[in-house]
Amino acid sequence: MLSTAVDASPARPTRINPVAKLAAALVIAVGLVLSVDWVSALTALGLEVILVLALRVPLRSLLTRGAVLMLAAGLTAITILLYGESSGAVHWHFLLITVSDGSITLALATFLRVLAIALPSVFLFIDTEPTELADGLGQVLRLPARFVLGALAGVRLVGLLGQDWRYLGYARRARGVADQARIRRAAGQAFALLVSAIRRGSMLATAMEARGFGAYPTRTWARPSPFGWRETALICTAFVIVAVAISVSVGTGHWNFIGSR
Amino acid sequence: MNATGQPGGGVAVAAQGWHWRHAGRSQWALRDLDLAIEPGQRVLLLGVSGSGKSTLLHGLAGLLDSGEDGDEIGRLLVDGAPPAARRCRIGMVLQNPDSQVILSRVGDDVAFGMENFNVEREAIWPRVRRALAAVGLELPLMRDTAELSGGQQQRLALAGVLAMNPGLLLLDEPTANLDPAGVLEVRDAVAAAAEQTGATLIVIEHRTAVWLPVVDRVIVLEDGGQVVADGPPEDTIARQLDQLRRAGVWVPGADLPVVTRNHASGAPLLHAADLSIGYRTGGQSRGLGFDINRGTTTIVTGPNGAGKSALALTLGGLLPPRGGRLVAQDAFAPAADRREPIRWRSRELLTRIGSVFQNPEHQFLTGSVHDELALGPRALNRDRAAIAEICDELLNRLHLAHLTDVNPYTLSGGEKRRLSVATVLATQPALIILDEPTFGQDRNTWEELVRLLAEIADEGTAVVAITHDLDFAALLADSRIELPAWDSETVTEATC
Fold first, then answer.
1. Which of A4, A130, A160 sits opposite B126 (nearest CB)?
2. Which of B93, B94, B92, B97 is nearest to B305 (CA)?
3. Does residue A198 or residue B248 have the better pLDDT?
4. Interface contact flag, B349 A216, Cβ < 8 Å
5. What is the model's pTM?
6. Which candidate from A131, A170, A220 shows the least CB-CB separation from B108?
7. B67 in the Ramachandran plot: left (φ > 0), alpha (ψ -120 to 50) or beta?
8. How far apart are CA B165 and CA B8, in angstroms?
9. Which among B103, B111, B355 has CB closest to A153?
């Protein structure tokens, strides 16, 4: 029965528990929203890049998701560059647009900060599956099973929306009502999708009850959700990153508690 | 209590003067039902489509909430308590396989019920594997459940319930979507599980011949939920033969209806050459070549997961071919430069190709049976009198006249199927494609469908039906298309 032993529990133990990833991303986010200076953001970002390399995150998925992140951070920075509070020398002025020393600094700091806050969430959750996160929330954090499994089954339904959308499209085309202009057709189909999503939700609840969900006040978990030294280490690393970033920033006199300056 | 935290053995089931009426209906689905089922008894529950069999099973599973779902008089008891208080002993396989996949990985989905029953982790995974093997679904545990076919989903749901070792096993047409070999495999898995655990079994299935050898009691409900026959299988069937036939029960050994056809093969409508079919991602069947002719019925068969539904969608002009050609003859195409059905307008399809989907609920777009029938004719701008005439004729013909204003989603499984066929007939297309049309039908509806399809074929309509139903195929097939499992290089076509 070797095969039984090999995949006795299909959750891959080589991965870090998603709950630890969630905690680490939260620690970094909370630490970095306290200030709007560029020094703490840049320090954190640098340390995060080292962490990315140490964790051997798959480069391809990091780059594709990272590109979206860069775009978002870039757009935010441009907005602040053009419309941000101006101070110091004004370089360009056009209607409501003012580019000054102050808005340049602020834009740069914002760009770095958005990256520094979002990067951990992106690279930590690249290989996380909802099932593993739910296992962690239920077993490590001991959140109520009703909430965790309801959410997990619901997430699966979101994935099925695409399939339902396709079938609705088939049905409307086959039944002769799909010749409207594209926007009107999409609007009608979207409403039908909403109705079908609600139906699916209620059928799912029935199916879960038909298999004994909630029959006992407790339940067991088929997949373990181990939480060991690696998980603790990851969360500690997050604290270290935040602590170093804030120390450097305060030490160099750039610390700016939520824009108090 | 044993190691898994549940008492073993079967449970006693009783109905005492039980009535149930679905919310929004004026008629009782079941009236004054009295039943007593001993622990460990294996019961085959029969009855005409719409007689309340599924409703009774839902009630026994504790899934009906009086107040929210409908009105209740009398009571149902499982081991002396209301079913909702005994859910820790009950496992049920629902009728629609598509709506009971719960988690996104095969292994996790099977494990779900056992987790709810507090089975220890170490015991879960061997049981997952055994249950999957028993129902013939030997897939990797990590396989995505969204990729399963209807038949595979049905096996998955059954594995999940069998693995729970419930004291009461409730199965609502557990083999309706399976290929003939799969039906016997799954039946044997159910019988073995009941044998092993001593569970009480209640199964609804129209094909009595399959289940009679493994049950020890047959209960027949008539329209309105009265018990008309109850007793040991052979005895009951023999004694009540005429009554059972009238109630639409599939009696083993009964002759198939005689269908006389004029077999006037007409002009070709569609021509497929080197056609590859499949969804945008996933497997495909390659190298298909066939003709669809007026007045001819073509039966498509193949194992679960062979892409039969994808073929139906492709022929229906709904799913683009993955390769090759599927073209209409000039007289059939709406325009000479648009001969591929996928390029036709939605309204152009209405009078040319009608699709009856595998899941009837996918067909429905309105809130009442009448509107559902009128939708197509309205899209064709038929006048009011013509629409009324079409609707009335179809409502009578398919025995839906008493349900005119009912929401299609609340119909019984058999009624939904009849309505989905009727919606297509309403616009009289030259080609009708049906995906598993006889799934879940009692014998009366089945015979009605066979005669209806034979008749419209004789009137010159081309009929393509995808089916696992051997009797249906034997009676209707003018030509056949046999699909191999996905990704095979070739396809065999036999024409008779």
1. A4
2. B97
3. A198
4. no
5. 0.81
6. A131
7. left
8. 8
9. B103
Specify whether the CB–CB gap between B110 and B128 falls below 8 A.
yes
Q: CB–CB of A10 and B317 under 8 A?
A: no
- Which DSSP string corresponds to B472-492? HHHHH-SEEEE--STT-S--E
Whether residue A6 is predicted with pLDDT greater than 50 in this model: the reply is no
Q: Is residue A63 included in any domain, yes or no?
A: yes
pLDDT value of position A189:
87
Distance CA B205, CA B261 (A): 30
Q: Which of residues 198-217 of A touch B (CB under 8 A)?
A: 199-200, 203-204, 206-216
Per residue in A79-129, pLDDT (tens digit) is 888 887 777 777 887 777 778 888 888 888 889 989 999 888 888 887 788
As given in the structure block, the two tokens for residue B376 are 């197509």
Note the pLDDT of residue A1.
33
For domain B13-246, give its CATH number from 3.40.50.300, 2.70.98.10, 1.10.3720.10, 3.40.50.10470. 3.40.50.300
DSSP B92: E
CATH topology agreement for domains B13-246 and B268-495: yes
SS3 B249: coil
Distances in whole angstroms, Cα of residue A240 to Cα of each of A37, A51, A116, A218 = 18, 11, 14, 38
Model confidence pLDDT, tens digit, residues A157-172? 887 888 889 889 999 9
pLDDT beneath 50, residues of chain B: 1-6, 487-496
List the domain range (segments joined by +) for residue A184: 142-210
- Give the C-alpha distances (Å, rounded to integers) separating B74 from A27, B30, B66: 58, 11, 11
User: Does ipTM exceed 0.85?
Assistant: no
- Domain extents in chain B: 13-246, 268-495
Choose between A214 and A13: higher pLDDT. A214
Whether A151 and chain B come into contact, CB under 8 Å, resolves to no
Between the alpha carbon of residue B237 and those of residues A61, B53, B122, B199, B252, the distances in Å are 64, 18, 45, 24, 9
Contacts of B271 (CB under 8 A, 6+ apart): B291, B292, B325, B326, B327, B328, B329
Q: How many CB pairs under 8 A join A and B?
A: 176
Q: b/e for B326-363, b at 16 or more Cβ within 10 A? A: bebbeebbbeeeebebbebebbbbbebbbbbbbbbbbb
Other beta carbons within 10 angstroms of residue A71's beta carbon come to: 10
